[in-house]
Write a structure and sequence with these properties.
The complex is a heterodimer.
Chain A lengths: L8 H11 L5 H8 L3 H13 L3 E5 L2 H6 L6 E5 L1 H13 L3 H12 L1
Helix pairs in contact in A: 1-3, 1-5, 2-3
Chain B lengths: L1 H20 L4 H24 L5 H22 L2 H12 L2 H18 L3 H7 L10 E6 L8 H9 L1 H4 L3 E16 L2 E10 L3 H5 L5 E2 L6 H4 L3 E4 L1 H8 L9 E4 L2 E8 L13 E4 L13 E8 L5 H12 L11 E5 H26 L1 H10 L5 H36 L7 H25 L20 H4 L1
Parallel strand pairs in B: 3-8, 5-7
Antiparallel strand pairs in B: 1-9, 1-10, 2-3, 2-6, 2-9, 4-7, 5-8, 6-7
Helix pairs in contact in B: 1-2, 1-3, 2-3, 5-15, 13-16, 15-16
Classes of the chains: A mainly alpha, B alpha+beta.
Chain lengths: ~100, ~450
């Protein structure tokens, strides 16, 4: 696993967004206003670094709602620790995502 | 209406995703496409249900799908994985041998290396199968060049195996020209020397019979001197040089492929143009002879030896040695190869302690591992020694090209440089070997003092 100091501001922003409950790719894009070409590679990298973990929605649930199953992302324990350190470094990050959250909900 | 519009957008998006998915590695492709298609489906239906499906949101959705290419590229060219692979590859014995071999191959394939030019390449344009060289023997007393010339004039008549002869006398000289002073070798030669060697000038003319009397200050220069002193000026004919303090006039330039068989002569002046040298061993005389066609070179050598060393013709304490050009080339090769071999042995012998350590810490139990271990060390060290040799000759040659005054010491300089480089490379070779796994030969992060170390354990 990489050191938090190696995480870019954008990666921390994505991490913070997932931590705030936005658990799939297009949701993260909507909140952060980052393009898909940036968000998805960051998601892959964070997953590769074991800071987030992905899981497929069960077929049964998706079938019940008559929609295809989605892939959800959630923070791992390491991810939470790294996010905690990163938020201390980027002081305004917490406020930024909280503001976005209230705007979207 | 809106439903059809959504279908059309989703079809376009899926087409883009299908194209992008070809970039993704096969084992991840299905999962990757499933995720993206689900995201697009949800996004599209969210737009439809919220009544926000318009031309601009359609474009936005398509733009997001174009981002799938970046994501796919990340999967294909994952920097972290590539770096990991690179880091691992750098540790392999294959990389080590490639790193030693590639620069060597580049130098050797790029152009003829200096070492091959000096040691192996025969003098071009010379018919070495039909040429013999006569020079003073190792224990012979010195002989005046004029005396040898007078002796040599009669040899073609005394033995039918020789058709023509040409005499030369070479000496270290200083030449001063438009580009400054230069240390070279010069030679006084009889006019038939160039005819005997089959040389033709690229500018002006070569020496003639009458030049020794009518054109005593005429000289023919070789291509290197023409390049160094006159920067390949085509109007060089008639220009002046100062050879050993005496002004001379250039009458001809030799082609680049011409090489005097015995020494690298820069300036050729007519024989008899200078007074006899007062000091013995001031000039070194020699004779070149052309053997008749169809005569075996060894036979010619034997017959000529009987003529040239006759008691009544040669002064006392003087002995003449006869060599074919092949012998001279072989002597040169033997000399260099011997010197390099001995230097390499000396270097390795000086490191006997490291050898002992190599033996002690190397694998013992498993014979194939043992074989691989020593084979890898031998191959790596040999390649490094060859690279050092080629590199030192190339460097010295490059320095000689810029500063021609040191070319007399080029051989010694090359050997010293080789010893220096070889010492460093052999040392590194040992150091590298101690840091390698005894089983898989991968380079480890630490130096290992035990045999058959398991890489995973140490790492």
């Amino acid at each position: 696993m990489r050191n938090a100091s190696k995480l870019s501001y954008t990666a921390v922003l994505v991490l913070q967004t997932i931590s705030s409950g936005y658990s799939y790719g297009f949701d993260v894009m909507e909140v952060t206003d980052l393009p898909s070409g940036t968000v998805y590679p960051i998601l892959r990298r964070l997953e590769h670094q074991r800071l987030i973990k992905s899981s497929w929605e069960t077929q049964k649930t998706a079938f019940a709602d008559q929609r295809p199953p989605r892939k959800y992302y959630r923070l791992t324990r390491e991810g939470q620790e790294e996010l905690g350190k990163a938020v201390q470094r980027y002081g305004l990050l917490d406020q930024l995502v909280s503001a976005e959250k209230s705007k979207h909900r | 209406m809106a439903g059809r519009r959504l279908d059309r957008v989703l079809r376009s998006c899926n087409l883009l995703l299908r194209c992008a998915s070809w970039i993704v590695p096969l084992r991840l492709r299905a999962d990757w496409r499933r995720e993206w298609e689900a995201e697009v489906w949800h996004w599209g239906h969210f737009l439809l249900e919220s009544g926000r499906l318009s031309a601009s949101t359609e474009q936005e959705l398509l733009r997001h799908c174009r981002g799938a290419f970046a994501d796919a590229l990340w999967h294909r060219f994952n920097r972290a994985l590539a770096l990991h692979y690179l880091k691992e590859f750098l540790r392999t014995p294959k990389f080590c041998l490639l790193a030693c071999l590639v620069p060597l191959a580049v130098v050797l394939v790029g152009r003829p290396a200096a070492v091959f030019h000096e040691v192996f390449e025969p003098a071009s344009d010379l018919d070495s199968e039909h040429l013999l060289a006569v020079s003073l023997g190792q224990n012979s007393s010195w002989l005046q060049p004029e005396v040898l010339r007078n002796l040599a004039t009669g040899w073609p008549t005394q033995t039918p195996t020789v058709t023509s002869e040409a005499t030369y006398a070479w000496r270290p000289s200083v030449v001063a020209g438009p580009e400054g002073r230069e240390n070279i070798l010069s030679a006084r030669v009889t006019s038939n020397l160039f005819t005997l060697l089959g040389a033709r000038p690229i500018l002006g003319r070569l020496l003639q019979d009458t030049d020794s009397l009518q054109c005593a200050d005429c000289v023919v220069v070789n291509n290197v001197l023409w390049e160094n002193q006159f920067r390949c000026d085509e109007h060089v004919i008639g220009q002046s040089l100062v050879l050993n303090g005496r002004p001379v006039r250039v009458i001809g330039v030799l082609p680049p492929q011409f090489r005097f068989p015995v020494h690298d002569i820069g300036v050729y002046s007519p024989f008899g143009a200078n007074p006899h040298p007062l000091l013995p061993m001031f000039e070194w005389p020699g004779v070149l002879l052309r053997v008749s066609a169809g005569v075996n070179l060894e036979t010619a050598k034997r017959q000529l030896a009987a003529v040239v060393n006759r008691k009544d013709s040669v002064p006392a304490d003087t002995s003449l040695r006869i060599l074919s050009l092949r012998d001279i080339e072989y002597q040169s090769f033997e000399y260099w190869a011997g010197l390099i071999f001995l230097s390499s042995l000396l270097l390795l012998a000086l490191r006997w302690r490291q050898f002992a350590r190599l033996r002690m810490t190397g694998p013992h139990a498993h014979i194939p591992e043992c074989f691989r271990w020593y084979l890898f060390f031998a191959a790596k060290t040999l390649l490094l020694l060859i690279a050092s040799l080629v590199g030192s000759f190339e460097v010295v040659l490059a320095v000689c090209r810029t500063n021609t005054s040191i070319h007399l010491f080029a051989g010694a300089a090359a050997i010293w440089l080789f010893l220096f480089l070889a010492s460093i490379t052999v040392n590194w070779s040992f150091h590298d070997q101690f840091r390698r796994c005894r089983s898989c030969l991968r380079r480890l992060g630490v130096q290992v003092e035990i045999g058959n170390a398991a890489r995973s354990l140490l790492e």
